[in-house]
Cytochrome
Amino acid sequence: MAQQACPFLSIDPSGQDLYGEISRIRAQGPAVEVELPGGVRAWWITGLELNKRLLAGPETSKDAFQHWPAWINGDISRTWPLAIWVSVRNMVTAYGSDHTRLRKPMAAAFTKRRVDALLPRVQEIVDRALDALERIPEGEVVDLRAAFAAPIPHEVVCELFGVPAGEDGPRAALYRIISRFFDTAISLEDAQANAVDLYGTLTAFLQHKREHPADDLTTALIAARDEGGLSEQELMDNLILLLTAGFETTVNLIDNTVHSLLAHPGQLDLVRTGQVSWEDALEESLRFEAPGAMSGLRYAVEDIEIEPGLTIPKGDPLVVSFAGAGRDPERHGPDAERFDVTRTTSRDHVSFGHGVHHCLGRPLAMAEATVALTSLFTRFPRLALADPAHPPKRLRSIISTGHEELPVLLHGRGPAGPRPEEAEMPAQA
């Protein structure tokens, strides 16, 4: 095995220089050992084609209980701040026949028929959010992530799974918990407290749904559990997966696409004038800013030869970097760091996974984002970044790719300020 130079590149848990770190890793080779938050070492993969190979093939697994010796032997503490990403037993962390078994009842939840049936309700939720924005006084800076990008997916996913509303209900609790779930700079104590809060909230929610079944996905999953298709732990952990991923990735997709279009008004004009479609803009956004920067840990089921002289040993953890794959210059050219809605390779990304682990919720996420974006820019045609010269701060995460806030002016700038088309920003590194 080729040895990596020491010291290992230590990944910043706050994620504030994510793409800078990816560039430095890429410069060292196709697979580079890094140190993750909490001192855990893993191989980081940045290239698109290698990402696809490792996502699709049987040579890697996401089941730490079968294929990560350091986890099985207790060398990695169960108090590791990122332990919940390893310990959950759901379709994403399952391997082989277990993955097939767990994925089957979920697949029925995201059929085209069900997504199409949801679209009128999605439009109602979007319109209500836009109505609230219209009541904000002109000239007031608005955090569009909090006021628009986040509430829409949260409400959609909660309705899909039958999560009751109300200030003291599980819907409000889950919003708070999920907001912290992806924080990889969180303290050990806060991470453990959040996990306890999450499982406690879902336990009470499942009890409520058993007592009040309805035509929703949680009731369907409970039925699958009762029929022997899932264990209670798998039921709980698949709910965690679907509620968190169904919320966070769509929030980031809306947030990132709005930011990229406003930061590059020439690109926005191409969409507005119909030279490219909203789907083109979303696909380029997915490539340029993968809503989930990485897939969670995978483990080498066998020795994996990356290239002559470079082998990942059996049992070693590795990170498939969706963010790295999206900006791979070998696939997307020397300007891969540039946002370009006309790019011919935009659709060649792995932001929704690849192979057997491709995301079931992609059709719903794309439908939500399309309705949200077209409605937003129709209602507020002069929408502009509040401070074009300073990119908003990133989320504290190496997993979730978005912004802590997205400050905008709904009606553009007054006569004294620059118009959006005069303040195009460079690509965010």
